[in-house]
Design a protein that fits this description.
The protein is of the alpha/beta class. The chain has helices spanning 13-24, 41-49, 82-89, 97-102, 120-132, 167-170, 191-194, 197-204, 224-229, 274-289, 294-303, 331-339, 378-387, 398-408, 430-442, and strands at residues 6-10, 29-34, 53-56, 70-73, 94-95, 110-115, 138-142, 160-164, 180-183, 216-220, 236-241, 249-252, 255-258, 261-265, 312-317, 320-324, 345-350, 368-374, 391-394, 414-417. The strands form three sheets. Strands 7-8-6-9-10-11-12-13-14 form a nine-stranded mixed sheet. Strands 15-16-20-17-18-19 form a six-stranded mixed sheet, with helices on both faces. Strands 3-2-1-4-5 form a five-stranded parallel sheet. A hairpin with a 2-residue loop joins strand 12 (249-252) and strand 13. The longest helix has 16 residues, at 274-289.
């Protein structure tokens, strides 16, 4: 399917780079285009040595022509991009790297796909750790880890793939199908990309595409929209929730329970919070369904310390604690972060302006002593803070915000980066933002 074709790759990043490498080895003629010239030169030279035509710094009008067989789009690029519109007009299939790699997988590979508005990365990682402790033939990919294309030559028949799938990916799936699909929750986020909440949740529903009763759907029954969009799917359904007890996995008397049995005492879990218990419920269901020993599952879940950039403990200094929650790119994620602490919080907010309001944070600010805001949204955040009588300081960048938050903090305070915004106004990705925060904090004396 992807041999001796003419393929246009829109956007480099990790997925475009890995896709180009895989396709170049299969006799395809490839053009890779990215608006940014700020790329890893070694990777550019590597692709060019494989025969890939790499065009950086602009989107010329004449490089995409009707004779291309596929356009492989970086998931962060909108479907109204001029090349995508051109491809649609000329009936060139528009897909993404995951869809392409899916067609190159060996037979009998089991795919566990995780999507939702929040909790995807933690849930994906938990499921991977649970399955890895029961089998050596498990691969972690998608939004977390290496793109699927990067594993193609390593994946063998019978292996299991655990893949985090964002709505940005689902928007350009055609044939991709999972064996197990997990829907963590649904909230009105990323509407700037998807256009409307209705469109967003319908795109999320694609995680269940082509399911029959042979495939498993794991659904948050405490989320009305999750229940609404999964009413008519044909999957075998299993449910979880921390707020109600009529699912397969639930909370009761301080325990994570499964179908009437108390499995894990939450006192024994390192990673606290109901949202994390829900993530663990998903991993518990998948592990049991795939035959992993229950004691191995319990050990994995109780000892899991969290995911980098997601309420990640950085260090303790002068009786202050620093936490990196750079992956919080929306209000709901920040609500979860600030709710995880019962001590005073010096909160760092800000980033890309997607037209969002911060009013949804209002009821979660009880422990927040002061807000330090920067980036495109800094004046919106300042207005929000003043309207709610929260001390606020506007800064130019993350370094200024972090240093001032520390200098004004007191013993016992939590200094928390939980931006509630995407990072793209000042960073390539939320990982870069989190890494800078940790570097700044670790340089404090």
């Amino acid at each position: 399917m992807f041999e001796n074709k003419k393929i246009f790759i829109l956007g480099m990043a990790r997925s475009g780079y890995e896709a180009a490498k895989v396709l170049a080895k299969r006799g395809n003629t490839i053009t890779l285009n990215d608006m940014s010239i700020d790329q890893d030169l070694d990777k550019v030279k590597e692709l060019e040595s494989l025969g890939v035509s790499v065009i950086l710094g602009s989107h010329p009008d004449d490089i995409l022509t009707p004779d291309f067989d596929y356009l492989i789009k970086n998931p962060g690029i909108r479907n109204d991009h001029k090349y995508v519109l051109y491809a649609n007009k000329h009936h060139i299939p528009v897909i993404n790297e995951i869809e392409m790699a899916y067609h190159l997988l060996p037979k009998n590979v089991k795919i566990v796909g995780i999507t939702g508005s929040n909790g995807k990365t933690t849930t994906t990682t938990l499921i991977y750790e649970v399955l890895k402790n029961g089998s050596n033939n498990v691969h972690l990919t998608g939004n977390v880890g290496l793109p699927l294309s990067g594993f193609i030559d390593k994946i063998k028949e019978g292996d299991t793939i655990v893949i985090e799938i964002a709505g940005h990916h689902l928007a350009n799936f055609i044939d991709f199908k999972t064996d197990i699909s997990v829907l963590t929750n649904l909230l009105p986020v990323h509407l700037d990309f998807h256009g409307s909440y209705e469109n967003y949740i319908n795109i999320k529903k694609r995680i269940f595409n082509f399911h029959t009763p042979k495939e498993l759907a794991i659904i948050n029954c405490g989320n009305e929209d999750c229940l609404k969009i999964t009413k008519d799917i044909k999957s075998t359904k299993m449910y979880f929730s921390s707020s109600i007890k009529n699912g397969d996995a639930y909370l009761e008397d301080g325990y994570i329970c499964y179908q009437g049995n108390k499995i894990i005492n939450t006192k024994d879990i390192i990673l606290k919070g109901n949202h994390n218990y829900e993530n663990m419920m998903c991993a518990l269901i998948v592990g049991i369904y795939m035959g992993i020993d229950i004691e191995k599952i319990k050990y994995t879940l109780t000892n899991f310390k969290g995911v980098e950039h997601r309420i990640e403990f950085v260090r303790r200094l002068n009786e202050r604690e620093f936490y990196n929650d750079s992956k919080s790119t929306n209000n709901k994620a920040t609500q979860i972060a600030v709710s995880s602490f019962n001590r005073p919080i010096m909160l760092i907010l800000g980033g890309l302006d997607r037209g969002q309001s911060f009013d949804e944070l209002k009821d979660y600010m009880g422990n927040v002593k002061q807000i330090f805001c920067y980036g495109e949204t800094k004046y919106k955040i300042e207005s929000f803070a003043k309207e709610n009588n929260i001390a606020v300081t506007v800064l130019n960048n993350l370094e200024e915000a972090t240093k001032l938050a520390y200098s004004l903090s007191e013993e016992g305070d939590i200094i928390l980066l939980s931006p509630a915004c995407a990072s793209w106004d000042q960073y390539k990705c939320f990982e870069d933002r989190g890494d800078e925060f940790k570097k700044i904090v670790n340089n404090f004396e």
